[in-house]
């Protein structure tokens, strides 16, 4: 009886730990992947915006401001939300420069 | 498909482990009852409900005190205890010891009244002898036999007197004498036993035999001879040995008053154990109260059943139904451990299985598309002018982002999104430079087919 207590306790702890890891590891992995995807999109958008700025004949202060903020966000790093915000700023700046051309 | 099945197996293993754990915990209910082979006896003697209280009562404390003052030995109506007056008187000597004898079966309040008669140095309730702070009761078979067969309390009385007066305690003796039953005595007993298996003497308080207890104690049947309490001082008729000679293979229970004897097969090893355990356990109550013989016999038979089921005498046990839980209980921890191990292994495979999957390297795959669009960008770069340069640069930027994403192992969907953006930019460029052959759809179809 006393010997099998170890089995029950150890088995129960292992089952709980395995269940916890089986749920948490994929979730963490998915979150990290989502973050990297978001930053990849953001960097591409910022690159688009810089190209549009270089090609734009006129200065657009509002777009400059938006792009600066996007680059600041990108430089600071952060989570997926920060990346999405940076991408949004860069896209709007890109749109402004293209329209101002 | 296999993935769904593996998930199903994984969770059912966890459910099985939980079920095993629950079964194990439920099976842990402990019981204080320990019996070899689950004896079916019912040996409990419920307080008050077993007819142990008699109709006899006692006068008030003052009346009893007056009685005790008038006479050194007071026998209240219904008193049963007897003793060897010569030896007791010799033990008392010239002291003024007073003895109060009360009937058995008094309730708690009546017994307290007897105790409150302070002038009585020795009080006897039923056959329970007490005096001062002491109580005296026999502790061996001859003592119990004398006390319960003939209500003889000589031994406890002498012991108590010696203790109260700081004198050496006299050794226990067996004063009970036996005689051979006469032929006229024996004849009706034998006739009744041969006819019905029981003989109830005149005056015995046994309206009917406790049949269930009798069958449990003696499955092959037994003879029962039930006699009332025997008169003190006369030899007892030894029915047991006489009947045993008549029918040596027949279990025989002889009851004199509250004293029960067993004769028959296995008596040498069995009778003493049964009697000693029974009177050691119930002797105090039997002496104090006035149980009907029926209840005493029922309790004795239950004790016999317990002794039989105690496994002391290599008797075969009755059939016990197969209990799967009891058989499986030692294996439960291992089943549980197995279920947990399976769950852990499948969980590990699930976690690892959700990692990256190899990219499609065929002609429609992402790497081929990336390579094709890169080649298209190089070709278009020769044709662009200031108006279409930004689109080309943006397309090239998207292609580089797609390559980085692909190298980082980001999901295929994201890489394809970036490639689609790049293709859209290059499409603009191709339209600007008026080269329909360089539109990505057309170009890739030609290159990758």
From TrEMBL, chain A:
Transmembrane segments: 6-26
Keyword Membrane on entry: yes
UniProt entry keywords in alphabetical sequence: Membrane, Transmembrane, Transmembrane helix
Pfam families for the chain: DUF6403
Protein name, UniProt field: Uncharacterized protein
Automatic annotation (TrEMBL), chain B:
Keywords, ordered alphabetically: Membrane, Transmembrane, Transmembrane helix
Domain of life the protein comes from: Bacteria
Transmembrane segments: 327-348
Name the record gives this protein: Uncharacterized protein
Lineage per the UniProt record: Bacteria, Bacillati, Actinomycetota, Actinomycetes, Micromonosporales
């Amino acid at each position: 009886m006393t010997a099998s207590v170890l089995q029950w306790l150890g088995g129960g702890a292992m089952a709980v730990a395995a269940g916890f890891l089986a749920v948490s590891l994929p979730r963490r992995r998915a979150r990290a992947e989502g973050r990297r995807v978001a930053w990849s999109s953001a960097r591409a958008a910022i690159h688009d915006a810089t190209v549009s700025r270089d090609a734009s004949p006129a200065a657009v202060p509002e777009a400059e401001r938006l792009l600066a903020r996007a680059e600041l966000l990108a430089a600071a790093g952060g989570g997926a939300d920060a990346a999405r915000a940076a991408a949004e700023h860069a896209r709007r700046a890109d749109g402004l420069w293209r329209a101002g051309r | 498909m296999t993935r769904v099945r593996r998930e199903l197996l994984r969770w059912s293993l966890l459910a099985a482990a939980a079920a095993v754990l629950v079964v194990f915990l439920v099976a842990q209910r402990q019981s204080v009852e320990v019996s070899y082979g689950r004896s079916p006896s019912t040996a409990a003697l419920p307080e008050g409900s077993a007819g142990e209280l008699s109709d006899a009562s006692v006068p008030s404390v003052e009346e009893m005190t007056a009685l005790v003052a008038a006479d050194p030995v007071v026998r209240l109506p219904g008193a049963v205890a007897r003793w060897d007056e010569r030896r007791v008187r010799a033990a008392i000597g010239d002291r003024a010891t007073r003895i109060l004898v009360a009937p058995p079966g008094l309730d708690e309040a009546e017994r307290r009244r007897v105790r409150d008669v302070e002038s009585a140095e020795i009080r006897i309730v039923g056959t329970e002898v007490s005096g001062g702070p002491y109580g005296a009761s026999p502790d061996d078979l001859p003592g119990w036999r004398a006390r319960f067969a003939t209500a003889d309390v000589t031994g406890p009385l002498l012991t108590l007197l010696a203790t109260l007066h700081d004198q050496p305690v006299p050794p226990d003796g067996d004063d009970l004498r036996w005689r051979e039953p006469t032929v006229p005595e024996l004849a009706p007993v034998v006739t009744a036993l041969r006819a019905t298996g029981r003989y109830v003497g005149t005056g015995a308080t046994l309206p009917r035999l406790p049949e269930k207890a009798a069958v449990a104690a003696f499955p092959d049947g037994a003879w029962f001879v039930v006699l009332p309490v025997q008169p003190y001082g006369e030899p007892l008729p030894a029915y047991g040995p006489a009947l045993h000679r008549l029918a040596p293979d027949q279990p025989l229970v002889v009851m004199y008053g509250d004293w029960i004897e067993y004769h028959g097969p296995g008596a040498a090893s069995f009778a003493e154990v049964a009697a000693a355990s029974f009177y050691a356990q119930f002797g105090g109550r039997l002496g104090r109260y006035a149980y009907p013989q029926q209840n005493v016999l029922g309790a004795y038979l239950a004790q016999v059943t317990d002794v039989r089921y105690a496994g002391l005498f290599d008797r075969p046990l009755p059939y016990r139904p197969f209990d799967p839980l009891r058989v499986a209980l030692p294996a439960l921890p291992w089943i549980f451990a197995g279920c947990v191990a399976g769950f852990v292994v499948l969980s590990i495979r699930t976690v690892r299985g959700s990692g990256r999957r190899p990219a499609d390297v065929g002609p429609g795959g992402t790497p081929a598309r990336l390579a094709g669009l890169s080649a298209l960008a190089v070709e278009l770069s020769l044709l662009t002018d200031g108006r279409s340069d930004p689109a080309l640069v943006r397309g090239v930027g998207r292609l580089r982002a797609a390559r980085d994403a692909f190298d980082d192992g980001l999901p295929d969907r994201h890489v394809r999104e970036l490639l689609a953006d790049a293709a859209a930019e290059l499409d603009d460029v191709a339209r600007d430079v008026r080269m329909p052959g360089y539109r990505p759809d057309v170009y890739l179809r030609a290159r990758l087919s």
